[in-house]
Amino acid sequence: MQAPKKVRVLVVDDSMLARSMITKGLSAHPSIEVVGFAINALDAKNKLAQLKPDVMTMDVEMPGMSGIDFLKQYLPSNPLPVILVSSLNLKVFDALAVGAVDFVRKPDEQQSPDAFLSALAQKVVMASKAKVRRPLTAAPTAASGRLATAGTAAASSIPRLGNNPALDRVIIGLGASTGGTEATLEVMKRLPADIPPMVIVQHMPPGFTKMYADRLNRLCAMEVQEAQNGCEMRRGLAYVAPADLQCRIVRISSGRYTLSCVPGEKVSGHRPSVDALFFSMAETVTCKMVGIIMTGMGQDGAEGLLAMRRKGAYTIGQDKESSVVYGMPGVAHKIGAVMVQAPCEGVAAALLRHLSSLH
Prior knowledge:
This protein is an alpha/beta fold.
């Protein structure tokens, strides 16, 4: 019987120490073959044509041409899955915006090299099956105030939902993983400033959820914050679950809900977990609910979304064609948790149609 084909990987990093660690670590994985390395973007461009890898790992910050500028030039005509290897840096979101599939945080005192290499190997294998999407719009960058301002202006022009008392009794949960940072942004920037309270779970390493919430806050009409334990949910405010904590909804009185963001065991392999959020909504929320499941590897959120639907929630799933990885929304659809499927760009419209029908 023929052995399964290994994922061919090109490692791009200007640090010899990092290159050596990543190359050695990935080579030890039974499903991965490191076919070469590059020391900068120009070197990578030459070796990509020669080696034809299935996946590339790339440092975001490199001398000369940055990883972001390289991806802007290369990916539109060469849709290669790229996993970013980044320190705690806002620019990782700019690289995701121009087409990178996912990222891992470089190890520091809090994270062992073994944990880093395990996460990177898992993402590399997943990326080999991912769909590389071109940016839907001009990518707002950390350094570009002009684009950020334009994005904010467009979001602020979205008509408000208005003074419908029914919308004061709605809670929305959204879960995403691989490919989800940009997919969620595509949803959020199409929603008005007075949206019912939302909670977003996006699988992300520690340190990045605050930066991601700040990015959404700059580019969307509603206020977006990283959630804190005990914060009360209110209309016009969206919360991003903090990395490495489980985020659940707590009912404190009729019509009043807070968020619990505390350490805990992983649920469905994750912390924060979409299932942990969705199950808490199914068990706790007595007002109307909406659950949205977006692109992501695995099945986190599928069972929780089904529990929400059984409790009367309206549920939306991203469709296969627009998902970077049709794992989470695919499983949710298969088990009957999804009422409506929509492309990434149509999820907000599906949500707004439902909200406008409430009374």
